[in-house]
Inverse folding.
C-alpha cells in the first residue's frame, strides 16, 4: 500500500486559553466527517508522506486516523493502491 | 565542575530534509545540487545511497553522475532547511538555553546545568536524538564530551543516528589514533604542512612539543595543540543564527572566470554593497576585512587585514579588500569566485584610537555618502542607485539569482 499527502479543510475550536481541538474534517470530495474523539496529541513527523507538525490521533466513524497540523495547514495520509 | 558539552550534527541535512519531505526519494541515490547555469553545479549534500557509490560533497554534478549513473539531482530548498533547523533548535532548547549554532545543521549545547534535572549528558543526547527522529523524521549524530572540540569530534565518529561519548579518561584511546585532519581547525593546508613534518594523527599533534606549533603555525598552532590535548576551554556562545556576531560576508561565483584586476574590483565592490547593507541593518562596524579567492583550479586562498578606522562603509570595505587582493594574489590562474568578509565586528559606540596620519575627516565624508545611498535604496530599491562601474558586467550573476548556501564544513 502507498500513501499520498492530502491537505484538508478543518473545522477547529480554539479556546480562550489558546488550546485547539479539531471538530470535523472536510474530505477531498466535499464530505464532512465529524471527529468523535481525540486520543492523543504529539509533535511528530509523517514517515509515510513526509512533513511534520502536531499529530492528532483521532477517532472518525469508529476508525483511528492521524491528522497533522503542519504550521496551520492540515494533512492526512491517504492510502492509494500501489 | 566538569562541563558537559553536546555537539549535534544533523546527518546529510539537505538530502535528509528532501527525503523526509518526499519519502519516495528514499529509494534512490539523490544529491542536492546548486544551479549549473549560475556555475553552482556542485553537490551540496547527498544521501547514503549516493555516498555508497562514491558521490562526495563539493564535487561537480558531472563527476557525481559518472560515479553514480542513476543519481537523482534535487534543487535546494533553503527555506525548508531553515525551518527544520529552527525546529531542531526548539528541541535542543528543552534541555538548555546555551545553544551555539555552527551553520544550519550543527549546534553545540552546554548542558552542564541541566544534568541534575534531565540526567547525564549521554542520556540527554539519546533523548534529543530520539525526539528529532520522531518529531522531525530526521537523524542526528551527537557527540558528548567535556569540551567543544571533542564533542564535535564525537559527532563525526559514528554516523548516522548515533551518540558518541568522549571522556577525560578515554579520549587518548578514542581519538589519538584518528587522522589530524579530523580535528576542528586543521584544514587542507595545515594537514599538508603537518604531514611534511611526519605529523599525521591527532596523537602525534598532542605529543609534539608546543614550541614547534608556536614557531611553525603561530597562534593557530597553539590552539591546535591545546585541542589535541583536550585543553579547549572555549564557551558555548549563545547566539542567533541570523544575527551578525563576529563577521559578515558574501561571496559570488562569476559566470565566467575573471582575468584581470579591473574585473575583480567590480566584484569586490558589488560584494561590499551587500556587506555594508547588513552592517547598517545590524548596527555593527567592521574593524577588519578578509577575502577568499578561489581560482579555476578550485584552489582557495584567504587573506585578512585590519582597517585603520572601524567602518560600515561599503566603499571603504571594498577599497581595503581590493588592496589586500592586489598585494597578495599572484595571478597564476584566472579566478572563479570571490568572497569578501567584514571581520571583528564591533558595536557603533566602539571607542578607538585614530592614527595620527589617518584622514578621519575624509573617511567620515565617505561614510555620510554611503549612508545617503543606503537611505535611497531602502526607499526606492537596490537598483535605484549604484556605482556606474557596476551597471554592465556580463560576468556578474543577476542580483536576484539564488545564493548558494553550503552545508557546514564545506568550502565554497
Amino acid at each position: 500500500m502507498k500513501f499520498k499527502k492530502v491537505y484538508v479543510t478543518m473545522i477547529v475550536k480554539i479556546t480562550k486559553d489558546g488550546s485547539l481541538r479539531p471538530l470535523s474534517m472536510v474530505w477531498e470530495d466535499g464530505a464532512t466527517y465529524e471527529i468523535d474523539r481525540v486520543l492523543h496529541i504529539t509533535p511528530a513527523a509523517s514517515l509515510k508522506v513526509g512533513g511534520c507538525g502536531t499529530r492528532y490521533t483521532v477517532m472518525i466513524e469508529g476508525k483511528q486516523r492521524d491528522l497533522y497540523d503542519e504550521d496551520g495547514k492540515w494533512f492526512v495520509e491517504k492510502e492509494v493502491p500501489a | 565542575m566538569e562541563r558537559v558539552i553536546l555537539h549535534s550534527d544533523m546527518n546529510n541535512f539537505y538530502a535528509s530534509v528532501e527525503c523526509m519531505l518526499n519519502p519516495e526519494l528514499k529509494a534512490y541515490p539523490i544529491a542536492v545540487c546548486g544551479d549549473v547555469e549560475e556555475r553552482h553545479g556542485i553537490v551540496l549534500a547527498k544521501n547514503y545511497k549516493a555516498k555508497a557509490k562514491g558521490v562526495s560533497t563539493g564535487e561537480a554534478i558531472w563527476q557525481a553522475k559518472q560515479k553514480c549513473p542513476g543519481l537523482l539531482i534535487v534543487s535546494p530548498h533553503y527555506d525548508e532547511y531553515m525551518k527544520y533547523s529552527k525546529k531542531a533548535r526548539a528541541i535542543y532548547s528543552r534541555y538548555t538555553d546555551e545553544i551555539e549554532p555552527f551553520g544550519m545543521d550543527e549546534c553545540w549545547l552546554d548542558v552542564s546545568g541541566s544534568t541534575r534535572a534531565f540526567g547525564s549528558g549521554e542520556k540527554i543526547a539519546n533523548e534529543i536524538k530520539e525526539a528529532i527522529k520522531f518529531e522531525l523524521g530526521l537523524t542526528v549524530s551527537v557527540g558528548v564530551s567535556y569540551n567543544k572540540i571533542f564533542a564535535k569530534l564525537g559527532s563525526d565518529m559514528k554516523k548516522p543516528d548515533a551518540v558518541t561519548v568522549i571522556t577525560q579518561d578515554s579520549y587518548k584511546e578514542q581519538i589519538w589514533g584518528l587522522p589530524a585532519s579530523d580535528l576542528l581547525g586543521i584544514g587542507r593546508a595545515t594537514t599538508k604542512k603537518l604531514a611534511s613534518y611526519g605529523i599525521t594523527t591527532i596523537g602525534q599533534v598532542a605529543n609534539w612539543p608546543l614550541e614547534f606549533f608556536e614557531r611553525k603555525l603561530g597562534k593557530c598552532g597553539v590552539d591546535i595543540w591545546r585541542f589535541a590535548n583536550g585543553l579547549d576551554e572555549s564557551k558555548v556562545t549563545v547566539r542567533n543564527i541570523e544575527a551578525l556576531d563576529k563577521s559578515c560576508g558574501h561571496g559570488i561565483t562569476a559566470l565566467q572566470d575573471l582575468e584581470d584586476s579591473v574585473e575583480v574590483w567590480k566584484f569586490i565592490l558589488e560584494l561590499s554593497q551587500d556587506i555594508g547593507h547588513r552592517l547598517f541593518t545590524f548596527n555593527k562596524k567592521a574593524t577588519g576585512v578578509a577575502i577568499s579567492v578561489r581560482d579555476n583550479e578550485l584552489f582557495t586562498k584567504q587573506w585578512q587585514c585590519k582597517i585603520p578606522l572601524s567602518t560600515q562603509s561599503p566603499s571603504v570595505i571594498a577599497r581595503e579588500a581590493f588592496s589586500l587582493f592586489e598585494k597578495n594574489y599572484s595571478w597564476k590562474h584566472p579566478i572563479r569566485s570571490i568572497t569578501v568578509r567584514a571581520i571583528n565586528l564591533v558595536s557603533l559606540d566602539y571607542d578607538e584610537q585614530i592614527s595620527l596620519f589617518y584622514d578621519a575627516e575624509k573617511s567620515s565624508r565617505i561614510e555620510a555618502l554611503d549612508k545617503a545611498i543606503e537611505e535611497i535604496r531602502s526607499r526606492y530599491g537596490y537598483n535605484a542607485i549604484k556605482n556606474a562601474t557596476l551597471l554592465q558586467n556580463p560576468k556578474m550573476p543577476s542580483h536576484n539569482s539564488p545564493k548558494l548556501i553550503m552545508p557546514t564544513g564545506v568550502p565554497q
